[in-house]
Amino acid sequence: MAEDDDFLAQLDAEIVEQIKSSGGGDPWALYLIRALWPYPSGAERQDTLKGIEAQCAKVGRKLRPTFEQTVQRTFNNHNSDRCGHAPKHPLFHCVGGIGSGVWALHHDNAKVWMAKNGYELA
Fold first, then answer.
1. Which comes out higher in pLDDT, residue 81 or 103?
2. Rounded distance between C-alpha atoms, residue 96 and residue 49, angstroms
3. 104: β partners
């Protein structure tokens, strides 16, 4: 677990830095990765959204009224459960299938995505 804690601490710092800078990858995918990382069996959608809200508050990011739709779209775009449109290396999936309300992370793919987007992994 210490390795996961080190990774999450590093990811916290990277998210803060990315949000402060202009440009970079999709911060919503980063927020989702960070929110789902500690839950290998998945987390309820609403709990995940609350986790992302807390991350945004931590870095001083104000959320728009469309926040939930933005996060849902990001989840969908990187979701292995998309019928016929799944990305080659999906970051997320629905535990119990689409509509279950439980979201989970493909940890191995998330590590690759982080490295590909210039984030060092412990």
1. 103
2. 19
3. 93
